[in-house]
């Protein structure tokens, strides 16, 4: 089985997944055989975390590039900034989420609904009842897999473990209470309620907020080399809520290309201006990616051809017209702006 996983999947797996699988395999050799049944959920969960990262950061200077997913401690190039914190949290959340949902779908023989509180009073006018998603299960198993990747005892390892936990807390904290009314003809005199996982998007959005509020811990120098140092690390992290993301280093300048760090910079990136229903964050993307990085916004027009005005003819054919639509896209470019060309002048911070 291990060989199967290796041969079939290795080709398509992201770096982080590879890394996870490696830990899965290590785990299989030492840990209980039972954990084998979770490995595909773990890999799928890590992948969904990465996809969510790309979605949440699509219009940010740092856009969750593959290079960022190399969390290995062996590389030596391990960063410990705000973005590293997010990657750990969202991956850990993805693994927990997938395990929990798969459990609810009946994928595992040894787990089912969490009905441990059923029958108890939950709040005014409602009792716990029904089938709550078993986050306790997802939490325990994902912890075994994801936290096992941190073998060090230094500040970086402590940071990663903290952010892994923050990811799991985000899944728990965004769960939704769903209720059903009881009583004479639906009068709702009592309700029974259970907890359901939210859409994973909601977990991603929650963690993005935590990313913006991440706390910096000053701990890099020398800590971890001695028992006292390790004690200081433990004390420091214990004093910070596990709901918050933490980082040790400042982020590099993501405007600029930096080959050493594997960063591409924002030149050439697409940004959004008008049209579509854009949120505030998207509407400002050209300023953030181009203008504030000293780049111009280049407008590129293109024409797309697609089928339209399709009519059904009796019987049985569908005939369509070809419609041409002009689309305008915006990109960050280094190209000299024409003097006085106010049209695409990059914005300034207000
Ligand atoms: C769990 O869910 C993921 C995707 O949501 C899926 O790929 C995987 O096969 C599922 N089941 C098991 C038993 O792993
Ligand atoms: C790349 O980043 C490193 C580490 O932050 C920095 O020391 C170096 O000067 C940067 N290189 C360039 C070309 O910006």
From TrEMBL:
<dbReference type="GO" id="GO:0005109">
    <property type="term" value="F:frizzled binding"/>
</dbReference>
<protein>
    <recommendedName>
        <fullName>Protein Wnt</fullName>
    </recommendedName>
</protein>
<dbReference type="GO" id="GO:0005615">
    <property type="term" value="C:extracellular space"/>
</dbReference>
<keyword id="KW-0879">Wnt signaling pathway</keyword>
<keyword id="KW-0449">Lipoprotein</keyword>
<dbReference type="GO" id="GO:0045165">
    <property type="term" value="P:cell fate commitment"/>
</dbReference>
<dbReference type="InterPro" id="IPR005817">
    <property type="entry name" value="Wnt"/>
</dbReference>
<keyword id="KW-0964">Secreted</keyword>
<dbReference type="Pfam" id="PF00110">
    <property type="entry name" value="wnt"/>
</dbReference>
<dbReference type="GO" id="GO:0005125">
    <property type="term" value="F:cytokine activity"/>
</dbReference>
<dbReference type="InterPro" id="IPR018161">
    <property type="entry name" value="Wnt_CS"/>
</dbReference>
<keyword id="KW-0325">Glycoprotein</keyword>
<comment type="similarity">
    <text>Belongs to the Wnt family.</text>
</comment>
<dbReference type="InterPro" id="IPR043158">
    <property type="entry name" value="Wnt_C"/>
</dbReference>
<keyword id="KW-1015">Disulfide bond</keyword>
<keyword id="KW-0217">Developmental protein</keyword>
<dbReference type="GO" id="GO:0060070">
    <property type="term" value="P:canonical Wnt signaling pathway"/>
</dbReference>
<keyword id="KW-0272">Extracellular matrix</keyword>
<comment type="function">
    <text>Ligand for members of the frizzled family of seven transmembrane receptors.</text>
</comment>
<dbReference type="GO" id="GO:0030182">
    <property type="term" value="P:neuron differentiation"/>
</dbReference>
<dbReference type="InterPro" id="IPR013301">
    <property type="entry name" value="Wnt8"/>
</dbReference>
């Amino acid at each position: 089985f291990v060989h199967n996983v290796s041969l079939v999947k290795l080709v398509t797996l992201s770096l982080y997944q590879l890394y996870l699988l490696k830990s899965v395999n290590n785990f299989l050799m030492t840990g209980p055989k039972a954990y084998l049944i979770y490995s595909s959920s773990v890999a799928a969960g890590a992948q969904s975390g990465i996809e969510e990262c790309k979605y949440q950061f699509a219009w940010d200077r740092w856009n969750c590039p593959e290079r960022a997913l190399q969390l290995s401690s062996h590389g030596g190039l391990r960063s410990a900034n705000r973005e590293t914190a997010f990657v750990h949290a969202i991956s850990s959340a993805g693994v927990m989420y997938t395990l929990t949902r798969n459990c609810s779908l009946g994928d595992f023989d040894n787990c089912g609904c969490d009905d441990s509180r059923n029958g108890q009073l939950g709040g005014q006018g409602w009792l716990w009842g029904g089938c709550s998603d078993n986050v306790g299960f997802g939490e325990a198993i994902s912890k075994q897999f994801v936290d096992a990747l941190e073998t060090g005892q230094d500040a970086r390892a402590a940071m990663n473990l903290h952010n892994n936990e923050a990811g799991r807390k985000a899944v728990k904290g965004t769960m939704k209470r769903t209720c059903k009314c009881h009583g004479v003809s639906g009068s709702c005199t009592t309700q029974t309620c259970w907890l359901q996982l939210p859409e994973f998007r909601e977990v991603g959005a929650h963690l993005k907020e935590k990313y913006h509020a991440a706390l910096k811990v000053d701990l890099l120098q020398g800590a971890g080399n001695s028992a006292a140092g390790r004690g200081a690390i433990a004390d420091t992290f214990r004093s910070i809520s596990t709901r918050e993301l933490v980082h040790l280093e400042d982020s590099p300048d993501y405007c600029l290309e930096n080959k050493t760090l594997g960063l591409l910079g924002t030149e050439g990136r697409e940004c959004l201006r008008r049209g579509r229903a854009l949120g505030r964050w998207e509407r400002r993307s050209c300023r953030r990616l181009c203008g504030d990085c000293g780049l111009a916004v280049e407008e590129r027009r293109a024409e797309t051809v697609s089928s339209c005005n399709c009519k059904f003819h009796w019987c049985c054919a569908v005939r369509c017209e070809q419609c041409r639509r002009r689309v305008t896209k915006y990109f960050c470019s280094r190209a000299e702006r024409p003097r006085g060309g106010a049209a695409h002048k990059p914005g300034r911070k207000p």
